[in-house]
Each structure stands twice: as C-alpha cells, then as structure tokens.
Amino acid sequence: MSRLQCLTMATALILLQALSSVSSTILSRADRITRLPGQPRVGFQQYSGYVTIDDKKQRALFYYLAEAETKPISKPLVLWLNGGPGCSSLGVGAFSENGPFRPKGSVLVRNLHSWNQEANMLYLETPVGVGFSYATESSSYEGVNDKITAKDNLVFLQKWFLKFPQYLNRSLFITGESYAGHYVPQLAQLMIQYNKKHNLFNLKGIAIGNPVMEFATDFNSRAEYFWSHGLISDPTYKMFTSYCNYSRYVSEYYRGSVSSMCTKVMSQVSIETSRFVNKYDVTLDVCIPSVLSQSKVVNPQPQQVGETVDVCVEDETVNYLNRRDVQKALHARLVGTRKWAVCSNVLDYEVLDVEVPTINIVGSLVKAGVPVLVYSGDQDSVIPLTGSRTLVKRLAEELGLRTTVPYRVWFAGQQVGGWTQVYGNTLAFATVRGAAHEVPFSQPARALVLFKAFLGGRPLPEDF
C-alpha cells in the first residue's frame, strides 16, 4: 500500500468516524445476517461478508461478526484467527470453539460458553484461499507467506472499519491459536507501526493459545511430553532427543529429504504413541472430528499405505457450511472450489515460515506496552505447554521483567482451572487444565474464565 493510499484510507476513516451513526447503518446493512438456518432465537446481531483487500486481483477475505450478547456498544472488539496455516476461523473458531453456535444435525445449538458473552467477536478466514475467502486468479494462492498474510490482515481491518466505523475507538484485542502464534504477533506489530502515523488501532492486548512461537523450542518439547505422559519408552526418548529431534524431522520433511535416521526414529515414535491416540489431546478416549485438526504444518505425519483418515463421526460443521441455504444466509460464495473445507486444499503456503521465530516480535509488543497472554491446553502434545512456558520465562528474563504473580493455581468454578504466572504488567502465561490444542472446544467453561480475565486486565481467579 502506497503512502498516498494510506493517507486516503486514514482520511476516509476519520470522516466516517464523525458520521458513524449514519455510515455504519448504510455500509454494514448488506452484511447483516437475518437468521442462520436452524438458529435458535437470540438477541444479538450477526454480520458476515467480504472485504476486498486487492481490487486489481479481486482478492477478498471473508469475516463473521457475532456482536456481544448484551450491551455490545460498551464491549470490546476481539479478532480471532485460527492457524494452519490455511485453516478456517469460521469453521474451527466460530462453529467449533468459542462462537455462539455449534452445528448439530440440521440445526444450530447455543454454546453456553461463547466468548460473545464478553466481547464482540470477529472471525476472519485468512489468507485468501481459506474457507470462503477467495481470489479470482489462482496465482494468488501461490507463494503465500507470513509477510503477505500479515499485510492482508492489516488491510482487512482498515477496510472493515469503513463498514463498521462504530468500532473505531473500541478497545481491540487479537486472539488465536496454533499457527496464529505467527499471525497474531505479526499483525499486531504492523498495527503498532501503522499507529505511529495514523493512530487508527486501539490495540489493548493479544492472547495466543498453544502457539508456534519458536520452532526448535516448541517442536522439541514434544519428546519430553511424550515420555512424561508414558507415550514412549526410555530408549525411544533417548533416540528422539539424541539422534533426530522433532524440529529436525519437520525441517527435513518439508524440504523433501527425510534422512534414514529420522525415518527410523519417527517410525518408532509413531508405533509407540499409536495412531489411536490423538496428538492434539493425548488423554481423550474418543476420536476428534477432522474439524479440529488445524494444522498439517505443526504435525506432519506421512500416511502409511492403505491408511485412511478416520474422522469418527459426521463432520457437522463441514456439512452445515456446505449447505446452500447457509451460504446464502452468510452472504458467502465458493470461488474456484466446489466445497467449503476446514483447511484449504488450494492454498500453497510457504511452510518453511514455521521456522522463523515470532517470540522476538512478542517481546517487541511487550516492550511497546501491549499486554500479552500465552496460554496452553495441558493435554496437547503438538505444541506442548513446556515449550511455551520456557519461551515466556526466557522472554521475561531478557526483558528484565520481575514476577508479579508467582506461579500458582487458578480456579474456574470450584475446580482448579490451571496454573499461571505473570511477569511485570504485560506478560502472562497460563495453562488450562484438561484442555487440548483447541482450548475453547475442550474446556469451554475454563476458557471463558481465562478470556474474561484477559479482557479485564486482571489476574486469573486465585480462589472459588
């Protein structure tokens, strides 16, 4: 985006802010959802549709907004991003994790722990090629990387505010999980840079769950997690840490040259951990639908000959979002593909971007005064809590932050919700007890307590 375009955008936003009461009605009216098929009656407004981020190449990102259940005008705006890269924030985040509804057969049922109880929730399918987001030229799906995605997400927000100027001065939080450990900090960094000239975004904090922040630390914590949970033997643990750790395997895998040693080690790890244990939740004794398998990047597992992916049950979300009446209600359309999918099968993402650390960007956000929460479901072996905990502690030491909340339990209801530690006034780490890779799905009540405390800038409850 050129300097002239930036100035034009900023001027437009200022004018729209002054006329927000009129403009918001006009610009967002077309995106208002009257009612989703099978939806129970609710008192809050919903919107969905497209924001064109590139007029020349006709690249458009799809969003879904669920306004707060009560007093939306006084509640913050929260942007949610799922990971992958290439997986849907609509299908995973909104309809499986923390959105207001969950598909069940032909209808929608209320999520009693929806995050729109506390905030106006904005879900973005990013980058183009994911979910209902599209480009008219297939070349736009090639060579997509973190840098492109971050810039596109920034442009999306700028233009989204043109539709919804009533949110311009609202407190804004960015949240997400998994590969959003790349998406969220990179977007926040661009927003801070943009604010130096235009002061557009009222960014109040970021929260990332089971995030990829530093390739080697995150991935290599898997071996200790497997061993400590009894999933692998002592000899295999030694091989997994001495001869071929997980970061080396992933690096070789995505370069198309897996060594014989790594092949041997990973084969033994796979045999012992068993394909009947879901790596996103190692204690779950029932299988998880494919809608929750967000990432092929963070968990590459070559299939054996004859092996098929067992999704266990009918994928409610995929079926629901592929209904024509649902797509019509959402103002969505399929471009260049016949079917909506949880994770994109047309996007060619630069997977080696996973090796580029973002923990340094997280550090720059903390230094800029942006509150950061890193939280981990403690049953996830894909991005284990041990790696995230190590990275947060190391960052606190590098920034010279003292502990303000010593490591302790926190409560949700009358049960221990997890453990937490806070450094300074801006950096916090928390675990969510019994939660998987997708924390709001696996422990919705505890996730809502975590979310509410994060928005309020308060420590997690230390009693019940």
UniProtKB/TrEMBL annotation:
Compartments annotated for it: namely:
Secreted
Q: Which GO terms describe its molecular function?
A: serine-type carboxypeptidase activity
Per its UniProt entry, which superkingdom is the organism in? Eukaryota
Per its UniProt record, what InterPro entries does this chain match? AB_hydrolase_fold (IPR029058), Peptidase_S10 (IPR001563), Ser_caboxypep_ser_AS (IPR018202)
- A Pfam family that this protein carries is Peptidase_S10
Annotated Gene Ontology cellular component terms: extracellular region; vacuole
Query: Main site of residence?
Result: secreted
Give the signal peptide range: 1-24
Q: What class of enzyme is it?
A: hydrolase
Q: What is its EC number?
A: 3.4.16.-
Q: Which UniProt keywords apply?
A: Carboxypeptidase, Disulfide bond, Glycoprotein, Hydrolase, Protease, Secreted, Signal
Family assignment? Answer: Belongs to the peptidase S10 family.
Per the entry, what this protein does is:
Probable carboxypeptidase.
Name of the protein in question: Carboxypeptidase
- Organism name: Arabidopsis arenosa (Sand rock-cress)
